[in-house]
Structures are given as structure tokens and as C-alpha cells.
Write a structure and sequence with these properties.
The complex is a heterodimer of chains A (114) and B (116).
Chain A (H helix, E strand, L loop, with lengths): L3 E4 L2 E5 L4 E7 L7 E6 L6 E6 L5 E4 L2 E6 L4 E6 L8 E11 L2 E6 L3 E6 L1
Parallel strand pairs in A: 2-11
Antiparallel strand pairs in A: 1-3, 3-8, 4-5, 4-9, 6-7, 7-8, 9-10, 9-11
Chain B lengths: L4 E3 L2 E4 L5 E6 L6 E7 L5 E8 L2 E4 L8 E5 L5 E5 L8 E8 L10 E2 L3 E5 L1
Parallel strand pairs in B: 2-11
Antiparallel strand pairs in B: 1-3, 3-8, 4-5, 4-9, 5-6, 7-8, 9-10, 9-11
Chain lengths: 114, 116
């Protein structure tokens, strides 16, 4: 019940295309859903996040769509660029013992072709 | 300002040896997290600290793993009698642990551990 399932495992998109990564969760106690971007040799960095009372959040070319009833959320990267090539992790967090515990998806390796 | 730093960046050790990994969080961040990332896989939670105490050690894979934090700052993750399956990137993150609905974690670059 603590798992976050992420798909696809890898994704190849043409420059200018739309990249879509999906995540699903089981635990309805999760209350914060961030996406992280990780470049090779670097730690993950927060990209965008959403709370469950919002169905969509957009920041530049990045949009999170959230479906609470289906317990699914997705990341859309519009006008994908070669510089977006990285590994993307979704996560879900739950408040516990005074702070937040994060459960991460297994990651999606995105390659954007020039 | 300075981000989360980790040292060493790479560590190669022989099976059976002990290793210590260090994390320097962002100044003022009260929460500190350790994760393990095996090659091509997601982040596996190991332990977190609130201040100097560790309320949740549930992710530590065995009693060979331990961690401590002093002065609400530096943390060390110690792996005793290393095994080949311990080979991974060990990531540290810190956060303000603010009240409210969100608490952004800031990650360090990780320590790549290779056990021969």
C-alpha cells in the first residue's frame, strides 16, 4: 500500500513533442505529490509538486495532472527539449513522526532526440 | 547558498570492510534523510532524522547499517562488513520540516559505493 508505481520505464520523444509519465498510488493518506528530475551524476532536484485538492498545476512547460478518484497523477512536458533528457521520479509523501516520509517511483529515463 | 554536500563522491571498498558516508545538510534544515539508489532503480528510503533523533529507522536493510547525526548538522551513514549488494549510490537530502502540506527535500550529489 506504500508503493508508487511509475511508467514507462523509459521514453524517447522527438524534440518539440510531449512527454508523458504516469504514476499510481494506493494509500489515500498521501498528501503531497512531487516530481523530481535527475541528471547523471547528480542528486534529484524538485521539478514541480501538487497537493491532492488540485487537479492540475502548470509551471512553464511542465504540468502535473492529478486524478484523486483514480489515485493517479502524471507529468506532462510540453515542447520537449534535448536538455530535458534526464530521469524523472514521481513521489508521494505522508506526514509521519513530525515530518514527511517520501515514497518514490522507480523512475523514467527520458531521452529527447534533437 | 551552499546546497547539500556529501563525501566522498566515490568509494571503492573490499567486501567485509566498514565504510562511513558523510552528509552536510543545508544550514538550518532540521530534517535529514538517507536514501539508497541501486543502478537503474528508484530511491529506497533508509532513515531520517528530525534534529538529532531518528524517529524512523524502518528502511535500514540490516543491522550492518547505522546512522547518526550530531549538532543538528552533519550526519554519517555507516555500513559495517560491507557486502557486494551494498553497492549503490547513497543519497542524502535535507529539508526545513515545516508545518503545512509540503516540505521540499533538497538532495546532495550522492556517494557512489562500490564493494568489490
Amino acid at each position: 500500500q506504500q508503493q508508487v508505481k511509475q511508467s514507462p520505464q523509459s521514453l524517447i520523444v522527438q524534440k518539440g513533442g510531449i512527454s508523458i509519465i504516469n504514476c499510481a498510488y494506493e494509500n489515500t493518506a498521501f498528501d503531497y505529490f512531487p516530481w523530481y528530475q535527475q541528471f547523471p551524476g547528480k542528486g534529484p532536484a524538485l521539478l514541480i509538486a501538487i497537493r491532492p485538492d488540485v487537479s492540475e498545476k502548470k509551471e512553464g512547460r511542465f504540468t502535473i495532472s492529478f486524478n484523486k478518484s483514480a489515485k493517479q497523477f502524471s507529468l506532462h512536458i510540453m515542447d520537449s527539449q534535448p536538455g530535458d533528457s534526464a530521469t524523472y521520479f514521481c513521489a508521494a509523501s505522508i506526514r509521519t513522526s513530525g515530518t514527511y516520509k517520501y515514497i518514490f517511483g522507480t523512475g523514467t529515463r527520458l531521452k529527447v532526440l534533437a | 547558498g551552499a546546497g547539500v554536500s556529501q563525501s566522498p563522491s566515490n568509494k571503492v571498498t573490499e567486501k567485509g570492510k566498514d565504510v562511513e558516508l558523510r552528509c552536510d545538510p543545508i544550514s538550518g534544515h532540521t530534517a535529514l534523510y538517507w536514501y539508497r539508489q541501486r543502478l537503474g532503480q528508484g530511491l529506497e528510503f533508509l532513515i531520517y532524522f528530525q534534529g538529532n533523533s531518528a524517529p524512523d529507522k524502518s528502511g535500514l536493510p540490516s543491522d550492518r547499517f547505522s546512522a547518526e547525526r550530531t549538532g543538528e548538522s552533519v550526519s554519517t551513514l555507516t555500513i559495517q562488513r560491507t557486502q557486494q549488494e551494498d553497492s549503490a549510490v547513497y543519497l542524502c537530502a535535507s529539508s526545513l520540516a515545516q508545518r503545512g502540506w509540503s516540505d521540499t527535500q533538497y538532495f546532495g550529489p550522492g556517494t557512489r559505493l562500490t564493494v568489490l
